[in-house]
Design goal:
Blueprint (H helix, E strand, L loop, with lengths): L1 H20 L9 E3 L2 E3 L18 E3 L22 E3 L10 H6 L5 E3 L23 E3 L10 H4 L7 E3 L7 E3 L11 E3 L7 E3 L8 E3 L22 E4 L19 E7 L3 E2 L1 H4 L8 E7 L3 E5 L6 E5 L6 E5 L9 E4 L6 E5 L19 E3 L7 E2 L12 E3 L7 E2 L12 E3 L7 E3 L10 E3 L7 E3 L9 E3 L16 E4 L5 E2 L2 H6 L3 E3 L12 E3 L8 H68 L1
Parallel strand pairs: 2-3, 3-4, 4-5, 5-6, 6-7, 7-9, 8-10, 9-11, 11-12, 12-13, 13-15, 14-16, 15-17, 16-18, 17-19, 18-20, 20-21, 21-23, 22-24, 23-25, 25-27, 26-28, 27-29, 29-30, 30-32, 31-33
Antiparallel strand pairs: 1-2
């Protein structure tokens, strides 16, 4: 009985000791909780304790360890699933520890000074249960198949930041589950893929690849989803990404060539959803008909002058990230599914002189639409759904020369919203305009296109020669209106294949050509001029005759009065003489 009680007491004492060992301050060095031991940032140079039983993960990162004793893991060898030895001073693989921890699934040996030794290649180094292996930022110069031969279930392999010069996926084909491989920041000049490789994430940036024309380096990677590629010395980029027709995200960095167009990206046109371009000497980016591309980022392309995006379902400018492209001058954002446009997507200051947003779903132009685009000279907003334009929408566009608002839903256009004194071409065709007006700045407009609207009367316009296209409207043909067109060169007359300009009202003139009506008005105007001249002459003659008659009449009256006065004087004198004689 006493022996049984003693055994129970010893068992309880052992349990208490174990609970204390795995408490909040186990070893007075590490933080321990829920089978996780955290010994990070402790300036450790050695390990003098044994990790408790049932420990599942241990982190010893950011210390000064040069050696990992296997004795520290003897108690927990069967329960450990994750080990983190990153940011230490290890020069060799902890072979004995790796051999002991048979259930290990995640191993992080990054940011050490590890090199491959002959001993490492003699027998399998890693156990077959390992899923994640991080060997990045070490001094590994080469790898051979024997190093990874036991990794049958590996999912993630990180080898970036080493000194590799050659790499073949024959080395890691042992694992059919491998999905992520990082090889950036090495010195790899040659790369080979094995047919059937199931990698989905591959990072190859900052190496020394020399791609040849029509390179098919990715032909075997049929499951690739995300690819990072590019380096500072890359002067030729593969003309096509043959074989990566399943890729969803592509990042290209440090581009030295001048132009990237859809030809390069065509193999992944039906799968690519995200495209990022970082740094380089690219001057022209032309991406079209990428049917599922929903995000595009361009950064630190200081030489980029032309950005052309067409038939891409970006939907909103929030999915277009542009940074460090202050040299951009021409921007084409056509058929991107945009419902609104704001210039805040473009950094200030900028040199953009040409902007096209043709074929989108823009309904409204607000006062903030073009605030950062004061250098614009040409603006194409055609084939949208614009029905309203705020009065200050174009307020800052003082250099604008060409404005295209054709194929929209405008019913009224007030030219007073156009503040640019340089505007010379205005295109408003294929809208629903019933009223059109201009301000004095329109005196510089030399080309006007208002075809296919519902306009009845030509707007008052400064008296200077312009070229205009007028067909497809509901013109009310009066001689006064037609005479107002006398200083306009109508380009869509009936010459060649151009549409004629017809009258719509009044009913007696409906269907008649404006050109013929103008001739009639001119002929009709000649008769009134002749009658007025004759009437003027007759009235002049009548007036002169009347004046002459009045003058003659007046003269005669004066003469008659003078005779009467003379006769009266003579009679008076005769009477006086007679009286004197008597």
């Amino acid at each position: 009985m006493k022996n049984r009680l003693s055994c129970v007491l010893l068992f309880l004492l052992y349990g208490i000791c174990q609970l204390k060992a795995t408490g909040t301050n186990c070893f007075n060095v590490c933080r321990c909780a829920d089978q996780h031991v955290n010994c990070e940032d402790r300036q450790l140079t050695n390990i003098s304790w044994v990790f408790p039983r049932n420990t599942s993960s241990i982190s010893l990162s950011n210390n000064r360890l040069r050696y990992i004793p296997e004795t520290a893991f003897t108690e927990a060898s069967s329960s450990i699933r994750a080990l983190d030895f990153s940011h230490n001073k290890l020069t060799n693989f902890p072979r004995t520890v790796l051999k002991l921890t048979v259930g290990l699934k995640t191993l992080n040996l990054s940011n050490n000074e590890i090199v491959i030794t002959f001993q490492d290649l003699q027998t399998p180094l890693f156990n077959r249960n390992l899923l994640v292996l991080d060997l990045s930022n070490n001094r590994i110069a080469y790898v051979i198949p024997a190093l990874f031969s036991s990794l049958r279930n590996l999912v993630r392999l990180r080898l970036h930041g080493n000194s590799l010069t050659i790499f073949s996926l024959h080395f890691v084909i042992y694992s059919r589950y491998l999905k992520e491989l990082t090889l950036q920041n090495n010195e790899i000049a040659n790369l080979a893929f094995h047919v059937g490789v199931g990698i989905s994430d591959l990072n190859l940036t900052q190496n020394k690849f020399k791609f040849s024309n029509n390179s098919e380096i990715f032909k075997a990677t049929t499951s690739l989803k995300r690819l990072w590629i590019g380096h500072a010395g890359l002067h030729y980029f593969p003309i096509t990404f043959n074989g990566i027709n399943s890729i969803e995200e592509l990042t290209i960095s440090y581009i030295s060539q001048a132009k990237i167009d859809t030809t390069i990206l065509q193999p992944c046109a039906n799968s690519l959803k995200k495209l990022y371009l970082n740094e380089g000497n690219l001057t022209v980016l032309d991406v079209r008909k990428m049917k599922v591309l929903r995000r595009l980022g361009v950064s630190n392309m200081h030489s980029l002058t032309t950005l052309r995006l067409e038939d891409i379902p970006l939907s909103t400018l929030e999915n277009l990230a542009l940074r460090g492209i202050e040299g951009l001058s021409q921007v084409y954002l056509d058929q991107l599914g945009l419902a609104e446009f704001t210039s805040t997507s473009f950094s200030t200051p900028n040199q953009i002189t040409h902007l096209s947003t043709r074929g989108n779903f823009i309904r409204l132009l607000t006062n903030n639409s073009f605030t950062t685009l004061g250098n614009l000279r040409s603006l194409n907003l055609s084939r949208n759904r614009i029905s309203h334009i705020d009065s200050g929408a174009f307020a800052g566009l003082l250099n604008l020369e060409i404005l295209d608002l054709s194929d929209n839903r405008l019913t009224i256009f007030d030219g007073s919203i156009l503040n640019s004194p340089h505007l010379n071409t205005l295109i408003l065709s294929n809208n629903f305009l019933v009223r059109l007006s201009f301000n004095p700045n329109a005196a510089l407009i030399m080309n006007l296109d208002i075809r296919n609207n519902r306009i009845q009367n030509f707007p008052s316009f400064p008296d200077h020669r312009i070229q205009a296209r007028l067909s497809g409207n509901h013109w009310q043909c009066t001689c006064s209106m037609l005479n107002s067109l006398s200083h306009i060169d109508v380009l869509d007359s009936c010459d060649g294949n151009n549409s004629c300009v017809y009258c719509d009202t009044p009913s007696e003139f409906r269907g008649q050509k404006i050109s013929s009506m103008s001739d009639k008005c001119i002929e009709a105007a000649k008769e009134p001029i002749r009658i007025e001249i004759i009437l003027g002459i007759v009235l002049g003659v009548v007036l002169i005759v009347t004046i002459l008659v009045l003058i003659i009449w007046k003269v005669r009256r004066i003469q008659q009065k003078s005779k009467r006065e003379s006769s009266s004087n003579n009679n008076r004198n005769f009477t006086t003489v007679v009286y004197q004689r008597a």
